[in-house]
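Obj: model holo form, ligand = 3-isopropylmalic acid.
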Amino acid sequence: MKAKITLLPGDGIGPEIVRAARQVLDTVASKFGHEFIYDEQLIGGIAIDETGSPLPDATLASFEDTQAILLGAVGGPKWDDPKAKVRPEQGLLGMRKHLGLFANLRPVKMVPGLEGASPLKPERTQGVDLLFVRELVGGIYFGPRGREVRDGKRTGFDTMVYDESEVRRIVELAVRIARGRRKHVTSIDKANVLDAMRVWREVATEVAAENPDVTIEHQLVDSAAMLLVTNPAKFDVIVAGNMFGDILSDEGAVLTGSLGLLPSASLREDSLGVYEPIHGSAPDIAGKGVANPLGQILSAAMLLRHSLGLETEAAAIEAAVHKAIADGLRTRDLGGGDASLGTNAMADAVCERIEAA
Ligand code: IPM
Ligand code: MG
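Output (holo structure tokens):
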């Protein structure tokens, strides 16, 4: 197949890991007879530096006829001034909203061979295989907000708003995904305090009644945070609003001890999606060639699966990554020590294993 893929390397380690993922995509293309046409565009801090906007018009134009978007990371200390008018993150949030990517999928699974890397005891993390389904274009991230002076005091406010249709589409998606897994959904809310979350729980309860083959449990966000470290293996699909999903998915991501390995997909009803690793731009190691490219490479695998329908090719990448780890190859973040592979060497190792399979 012939497909256009927009590349958004962004900031920090973004460019080097996106380059590594592109090499893997090229390997897949030649092995399986596809042609991927890349369109590299700006987003985030580098886009602010070069155009003044974190989401330039040329980037938006590329989205018009693209089939999928592979993103590295945005942000860094250079753009961290709290008084700045534009921030790199606005590029990311603006893109999600512009494209209507309402569903953010973040799978968290123990990787064989890396059990020791988790901060939790092995008996706790055994069997962890969960999926966060985070609502991405609503809630407190996008509700009415502002800064003003009230009674002579600097005041800021953000508002959590959810209507029933927004809750329904994300919970229904979680249910459909759970049907192909262990048929269990944990719906996260704070219905004991927040009205928006009472609507969330009501709608989730209705969706549960309409889908009796899938179990939906309700969990308050604070106790869910606790359960994620005390009994993470209990979870299958976790569905949450934008902010709670943001927080819990970071907590979930460290369970496996391999933050650098975790991919994510941001999706909508059609096949267009944005794929990016869960980790950030890691400015401290940017440009050094030591960043772990595997989260980005596995994001490329999700891209092939969800946006291009290339399941065999996606599985080939995943198998090659797991083989590289099983073969003892480690980047620095995975505890490779003196024998650590750099970014390019790890990408080469994955490509060799795809070719050899
Ligand atoms: C994420 C990030 C973003 C978010 C930031 C960078 C705006 O933390 O994708 O989880 O809060 O959504
Ligand atoms: Mg986050």
